[in-house]
Amino acid sequence: MLPSAILNPEYPWQSPDVEPIVRIDRVTKTFGSVYAVDEVSLTLYPGEFFSLLGASGCGKTTLLRLMAGFEQPTSGRVFLAGQDVTDVPPYHRPVNMMFQSYALFPHMNVASNIAFGLKQERMPRAERRERVWEMMALVQIESLARRRPHQLSGGQRQRVALARALAKHPKILLLDEPLAALDKKLRAQTQFELVNLQERLGITFIIVTHDQEEAMTMSSRIALMHEGRIQQVDPPRRMYEFPLTRYAADFIGLVNLFEGRVISQEDDRVRVHSEQAGGDILARHSEPLLPGMEVTVAVRPEKLLAIPGNRSDNDNSDEPNRIRGVIKEIAYLGDVSIHYVQLTSGYVAKFTQSNVQVLAEQALTWDQSVTLGWDFHSCRLLTQ
Ligand code: ATP
Questions:
Q1: pTM for the full predicted model
Q2: Beta strand 49-53 with 204-209: parallel, antiparallel or unpaired?
Q3: Residue whose CA is at the smallest distance from ligand 1 atom 17
Q4: Domains of the chain
Q5: CA of 257 to the centre of ligand 1 (A)
Q6: What whole-number distance in Å separates Cα of residue 161 and Cα of residue 178?
Q7: Which of 114, 272, 295, 324, by CA, is between 20 and 30 Å from 86?
Q8: To 10 degrees, what angle do helices 184-201 and 154-166 make?
Q9: Is the minimum distance from the CB of 60 to ligand 1 under 6 angstroms?
Q10: What is residue 1's three-state secondary structure?
Q11: Which helix H or strand E contains 173, and what residues bound it?
């Protein structure tokens, strides 16, 4: 029988027979009274492009450094490639790390920078030369071999750092904000290059980023961190469409969060009354909820449809998932426009419209009354 990783190569985390490449087992790291990483458990599989995502100070760099061996856990264990490496020093772990600053040696040229780790490992000269050229070819910097770091652009330095980190053929590559020094356009281009490279090499990439778009573009899965803890681990689409907490819904993309109380539940159809939304909301939720329970309903702005004018008096005023308001701001972003709609409760709801036609009449404008509606499958009920 084929191993499940081959049967299901894109989702190894769904295949119970695949051996994890990284296992973090209830790891805590404190600095004085600060819990930088708090009881974190994570399992990663070979060939994943995994992102640690979160706001500044949430503990993602510390978690990466714990994997690299630059930090020792206060409690818990770290397993890499099936081995407990908690007490193993960094240079004996099957990982390499690419630092945010790139940490290139200024007095060495590109080829020597890439060769440095191999030299330390005492790799024979001929083999080393070959490996360095192989790495330079991989990231397309052969023509820069003799240049020093100060003679390179930010993007070129990033490639040198990547080539150096890959030179030892690590099983796992840890990347700390690898694209932070690049401008927006180069970043977008390099994101795809990194993904292509990772797919070609089959190495497990673990990257730290605070940029949700970057994490969404590149990752097989994302771990969202908050205050030292993991909030959710999921592939990008699931993370966006099915956030588990208010924090996750709010961190990734734009969202409307309507607070309310449960009125009733019939199977998986829950009716919520929300003063904030100015009416009732119907949402799906399979777990039982008690009437009166406080919940939040999350609706993404692109799931809302706007109809000019208020609901007429003929409308059934009990109709759920319909809210009224007045457009107060419109942000034109080129591809889409975000409309900010003030509801009677004072809450400002957001909905997006894509700008499909160049010369389209602007159907909706400032100070216009609108009714916003959405399908009950398109919202998410959150209890925490
Ligand atoms: P950023 O995106 O800003 O780099 P981060 O999510 O990577 O943040 P960490 O650098 O892991 O966060 O820091 C987590 C917490 O631990 C922060 O409160 C930070 O101040 C603290 N911290 C990290 N390293 C140390 C250290 N060596 N000594 C003391 N406190 C530390």
A1: 0.89
A2: parallel
A3: 57
A4: 19-247 (3.40.50.300), 254-382 (2.40.50.140)
A5: 29
A6: 9
A7: 114
A8: 20
A9: yes
A10: coil
A11: strand 172-176
